[in-house]
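Example record

Each entry pairs one chain with its bound ligand, pyridoxal-5'-phosphate.
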Amino acid sequence: MNDDQNYETLDPENWDEMRKLAHRMMDDALDYIQTARERPVWTPVPEEVSAKLTSPAPAGPTPPEEVYEEFRSDILPYNLHTNHPRFWAWYMGSGTVMGALADFFAAVMNPNVGGINHVAPRVEQQVISWITRMMGFPDSASGLLTSGGSMANFTALTVARNSGAGYDARREGVLAAPGPLTVYASTEIHSCNQKAVETLGLGSDGLRKVPVNDDYTIDLDALARQVNSDRESGMVPFCVIATAGTINTGAIDDMNAIADFCERENLWFHVDGAIGAVAVLAENVRGQLSGMERADSIALDLHKWMHIPFEAGCVIVRNAPAHRDSFALVPEYLQREPDGGGMASGSLWFSDYGLQLTRQFRALKVWMSIKEHGLERFGRMIARNVEQAHYLGRLVEAQPSLELTGPVGLDIVCFRYNPGNLAPQPLNDLNKELLVRLQRGGVAAPSYTTLRGHYCLRVAISNHRSRPEDFDLMVREVVRIGNDLVSGTVH
Ligand SMILES: *Cc1c(COP(=O)(O)O)cnc(C)c1O
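Structure tokens for the complex follow.
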């Protein structure tokens, strides 16, 4: 009954065959990344594949080789191909090989990094202390790796609320506030912060959106006026969120001015640095981020401009006890033992610093990628993307039928095709159609935004594989499609 052969588990029935398959998968994976440039940057999912993906779960087993074949034919070709050198949509990183291998090994090790006395929390702690130093925070700061910028901002804003409410908000809730608790940011603030403010019980009205200057940075006078008038009408301002690299145009708010303002007004200074915080590594950006090191908390993404495979974000908080006080909750089944004891010993429990108890070993891919490349190389990749954005800006300006629709900020370029004789709405429609054709053609994948009523193509170059000729190619393609659309040669 209990002999090894027949005792059912989820392990391979035939280890030799699984080993062969695993080696093939590894070879295919490396080929996939090495030849990224040769495939279309986007391929829509065919209807027959979509239909297959609605079939019910199988009750019985399928041989592993067959499962893998199905993956190869039905899933892999329709990937969102962020590894491609001309993937510039929304704002994503392009992955690293070591990061992918590390993620595989994190799953092989399969530790739970919520706490407990083992090696993985120490690795996460090391990664956090590297980031803490990168950001110019003191070693006493706390941090947490998160799924991404959204959870990093949510975590920081929770600590900000609990610290700034002026009473025990964790125990009494927002109903006990003497007036509506309010957070301040520019109109260019990323939507995840509004979701966080709503989830924290403050309502979307609790996020006060302040107008921006021509360069899309927050208008500091308007900020001061808003905080003042809100206080006069009984609200309780507790936090200002500065953005280091806005999602639309890569604008960086004036960090020192906001730090001064928060000091004067006794407000929590939070930085949403999902895009730009890691650009402290780049010579040509560092100066613009001056003052960020004065923040009370910073949210940043490692799966954007650091190219760590999804998901990887980080939050750091200057006041570690305030961070812990917002999330630590230790029931009898999670009690800790003194150092030197068994598995429950030690104080490094990351579940005390965020919402999740069970946590994956996402630190490993960050740790291995940073070890492999070193911070300086990451800095050079970031700096080069910024130069490429300016190169693309010059290409756009050199084309009579193209125009920039906003300032080039960090690695983000917004532009549109404009034949010069269309009213605003037809011009927006033309550019929408142009972008769809560009994406479906598989040549390049920008995304889009709308700036001051102008719909435009938006190229976010957080990509370590892009080369100058990739931008030449995209610009030629945009002009060609635009001309075809205007002359009616395509329908
Ligand atoms: C992407 C982004 C976020 C959200 O981060 P996720 O990693 O997608 O959760 C927040 N703020 C800014 C400025 C961003 O660009």
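Residues 259 and 294 are 6 Å apart (CA to CA).
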